[in-house]
Specification:
About 80% of the residues lie in helices and about 0% in strands. The protein contains eight helices and no strands. Helix 1 packs across helix 5.
Length: about 240
């Protein structure tokens, strides 16, 4: 597992640097242009980087034929799958932390530049960037957006990795949307009116959101994503063990 983990991170190290830089640039431009809050920065980092990493490392396996050569090494298929899951999980964690750091960095820079913008606009009211200063973005918003984005990436990874383990990325792209749709249909069936969990989810969401506990909702989403990610691991191990190259 350790060999696979290090292999993924070493192979993708340059791509990860490019992903972080591109994500920071895109998130900063979109945040300043929308003038809403710093939530977009953390969410962008938490979601975009892990998903792009997952697709990139899976594509590299096929383009370089590394996945076939890997089977000749003293590494079991189980360790290969576990190492891939570990590398994706580490990237998810690192992306969430980077999202928080980037949010505070953007907020600090805007806080320095906001008075100049206000003076330049000649308006006696608030600065055009007043919604992006740190005082207008509490810590639970910044952390919640980063963790929420990372939870979404982990959730999609739990669906994508088993399909890629069985079919590879090129063939798997045909089945990933189908799996996502089937999962959505299953969830709607459970939680719709008359479904077995129809009364549970709305009440749970209302109770979490009451009193401004949005961060508690994010924590629940993170826990659900972690559980699904853990469940998908043995499924991927089983599917990869029967895959033929």
């Amino acid at each position: 597992m350790k060999a696979m983990l290090l292999s993924d991170l070493i192979v993708m190290r340059r791509s990860l640097v490019s992903l972080v830089a591109a994500c920071f640039l895109a998130a900063t431009i979109m945040t300043v242009a929308s003038d809403s809050s710093l939530a977009f920065v953390g969410g962008c980092f938490g979601a975009m980087i892990p998903l792009l990493y997952l697709m990139s490392v899976a594509a590299y396996d096929e383009l370089s034929n590394w996945q076939v050569y890997r089977l000749t090494l003293p590494m079991s298929r189980k360790n290969a799958v576990v190492g891939r899951y570990a590398s994706v999980f580490l990237v998810v964690l690192a992306s969430a932390v980077l999202g928080v750091i980037a949010s505070y960095a953007v907020g600090a820079v805007v806080g320095i530049l906001a008075p100049a913008f206000a003076a330049g606009s000649g308006s006696a009211g608030e600065s055009p960037l007043s919604t992006l200063v740190l005082s207008a973005n509490p810590a639970d918003l910044i952390w919640g957006s980063a963790i929420g984005g990372a939870s979404g990436a982990l959730f999609l990874g739990a669906i994508t990795l088993p399909v890629v383990a069985r079919f590879g990325l090129r063939k798997g792209t045909r089945f990933i949307p189908i799996v996502g749709v089937l999962f959505a249909v299953f969830a709607i069936t459970l939680f719709k009116d008359g479904g077995p969990l129809s009364g549970f989810a709305p009440e749970m969401v209302r109770s979490l959101l009451s009193g401004g506990s949005e961060f508690a909702l994010v924590a629940v989403l993170a826990a659900v994503s972690l559980i699904l990610y853990a469940i998908s691991l043995p499924i991927s191990i089983r599917l990869y063990s029967t895959r033929e190259f």
